[in-house]
């Protein structure tokens, strides 16, 4: 009878005190919660990816990245500048539609807020086209 009463009170093995039984139950519950947390973390990541913004985009080509950082990024990564932002396809679309010759002319001779040579006095036409392709996200021909 005493063994039955101990089993009913403790919920575990006979001979354990109420405190020992409670500690065991709490440890078991904590272990189950930890296990559920591990499995609950599997699957699709609920955190959105860090957005790629004009300020974080950089050309893969190291030489082009250096030119972009020193000559283009100041305006094309700053929304306050009024320049089309790097990676902003809708802002670049009407400019791309004007054609490569117009884009090169505006890059070399300046246009509105765009300074002549885009602050890259050593850039060739090919480099300007590569930079525009990178910033617009569209391959130019």
The stretches of 5 or more residues where confidence is low (pLDDT under 50) are: 4-8
Global geometry: rod-shaped
Mean pLDDT rating: 81
State the major sheet: none
CATH domain class name of the largest domain: Mainly Alpha
**Proportion of residues in extended strands:** under 5%
The quaternary state of the protein chains shown equals: single chain
How many beta strands in the DSSP annotation?
0
CATH architecture of the largest domain: Orthogonal Bundle
**What is the fold named in CATH at topology level of the largest domain?**
Cytochrome Bc1 Complex, Chain D, domain 2
Q: Helix count?
A: 6
Name of the CATH homologous superfamily of the largest domain: Cytochrome c-like domain
Which helices and strands occur, and which strands form pairs?
Blueprint: H1 2-10, H2 18-40, H3 62-76, H4 89-97, H5 100-109, H6 125-136
Helix pairs in contact: 3-6, 5-6
Explain how this protein is built.
This protein is mainly alpha-helical and 141 residues long. The longest helix has 23 residues, at 18-40. Mean pLDDT is 81; it is low at 4-8. The N and C termini lie far apart (92 Å). The radius of gyration is 32 Å and the shape is rod-shaped. Helix 5 (100-109) packs across helix 6. The chain has helices spanning 2-10, 18-40, 62-76, 89-97, 100-109, 125-136. The protein folds into 2 domains: 2-40; 62-136, Orthogonal Bundle (Cytochrome Bc1 Complex, Chain D, domain 2). It is built from 6 helices and no strands.
């Amino acid at each position: 009878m005493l063994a039955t009463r101990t089993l009913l009170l403790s919920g575990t093995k006979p001979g354990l005190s109420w405190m020992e039984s409670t500690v065991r139950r709490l440890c078991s519950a904590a272990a189950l919660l930890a296990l559920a947390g591990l499995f609950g973390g599997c699957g699709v990541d609920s955190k959105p990816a860090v957005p790629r913004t004009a300020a974080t985009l950089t050309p893969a080509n190291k030489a082009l990245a250096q030119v972009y950082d020193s000559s283009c990024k100041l305006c094309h990564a700053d929304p306050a500048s009024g320049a089309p932002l790097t990676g902003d396809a809708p802002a670049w679309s009407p400019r791309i539609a004007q054609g490569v010759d117009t884009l090169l002319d505006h890059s070399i001779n300046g246009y509105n807020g765009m300074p002549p040579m885009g602050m890259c006095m050593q850039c060739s036409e090919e480099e300007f086209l590569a930079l525009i392709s990178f910033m617009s996200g569209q391959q130019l021909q």
